[in-house]
Amino acid sequence: MKNIGFLSFGHWSDAPGSRVRSASDALLQSIDLTVAAEELGADSAYFRVHHFARQLASPFPLLAAAGAKTSRIEIGTGVIDMRYENPLYMAEDAGAADLIAEGRLQLGISRGSPEQVIDGFRYFGYQPEDGKTDADMARTHTEVFLKVIEGEGFAQPNPQPMFPNPPGLLRVEPHSPGLRERIWWGAGSRATAEWTARQGMNLMSSTLLTEDTGVPFHQLQAEQIQMFRDEWAAQGWERRPRVSVSRSIFALTTDEDRVYFGGRGGDSRDQVGILEGGAARFGRSYAAEPDELIEQLREDEAIAAADTLLLTVPNQLGVDYNAHVLENILTHVAPALGWR
Asked: Of 33, 160, 175, 180, which has the fewest CB atoms closer than 10 Å, so is most exposed?
């Protein structure tokens, strides 16, 4: 069995052919797709977070709304850029959204990726301390966030409060028990995966890896996953960690599918490029008739190693078509691979 869900970037534009033409469309359709995915039997709905872009950016209102309209499906992010976050305010938002969803929140966070503007986090009021990098700042914000969502009191109460306080130091409210175990780190390298294990976070293996050893992406990613699990075991954590990978996968079952994705040939090769001055390897996408697609996916070692598969959806094609994309995988592909 494998947890199968979708990952949406929440793009919107008024370009010809787009069925998501405004921010309102993107948000409301994201909720509708989550409801549809739950009805189809999918396990999770994840949303990307990008600032200064015509994409989803403020996740907690969306997560809370989706949580209120569903009852079973996991709801999460992939990922929140911690360079931009006030960790205590984020803890309040996350606690509230998780309580509304009755403990179904799965928060993917990370140090961030290249954004639409230069040092966008500075516009949000954050900048690294002297001698530190923006990645250091993201990890510092993460350390604080992880600590406060554990629920221990740390703030000195006012001796003359407006309302009565419980005894002892106060914590951020609302507190949602168990949320700390449902935090994931988006790791783009093998070393970061090991760091993730040391922090006791689940692993969200990135859609690209910021290193290139010459092996196919799925093998490098599988190696990253194994290094994460080895380090997790070495740390002696009691619970079993979770690992997700994301892929663009399309089963071609209709003429519409073939028009949209049939010409891709599955993008059967990895892409290698330069990101932030270093080598990066990007994974392939898959698009084929179901029988051929099943055989291709059998060879993907990272998908086999992960417990959670997130299908990146073309959200601008609308709710109905993306529900069809999910249904194709759940119906025509997953059973043959033992995922269902």
From this structure: 160
| Size of the chain in residues | 340
Q: Contact 221/245 with Cβ under 8 angstroms? A: yes
- What domains does the chain contain, in order, with CATH numbers? 3-146+180-337 (3.20.20.30)
Tell me how far apart the alpha carbons of residues 150 and 175 are, in angstroms, rounded to a whole number.
8
SS3 136: helix
Alpha helices by DSSP H, the chain: 23-40, 59-68, 87-100, 134-148, 190-199, 217-235, 255-261, 290-298, 301-305, 319-328
pTM for this entry:
0.94
Cis check for the bond before 174: say yes or no (omega within 30 of 0): yes
Residue 59: count other Cβ atoms within 10 Å of its Cβ: 26
Model confidence pLDDT, tens digit, residues 2-52:
999 999 999 999 999 999 999 999 999 999 999 999 999 999 999 999 999
CA-based Rg of the chain, rounded to a whole angstrom? 20
CA quadruple 147, 150, 152, 155: dihedral sign: positive
Cβ atoms of 330 and 4 within 8 Å: the answer is: yes
In what helix (H) or strand (E) does residue 3 lie, and over which residues does it extend? strand 3-8
User: How far is the C-alpha of 9 from the C-alpha of 55, rounded, in Å?
Assistant: 6
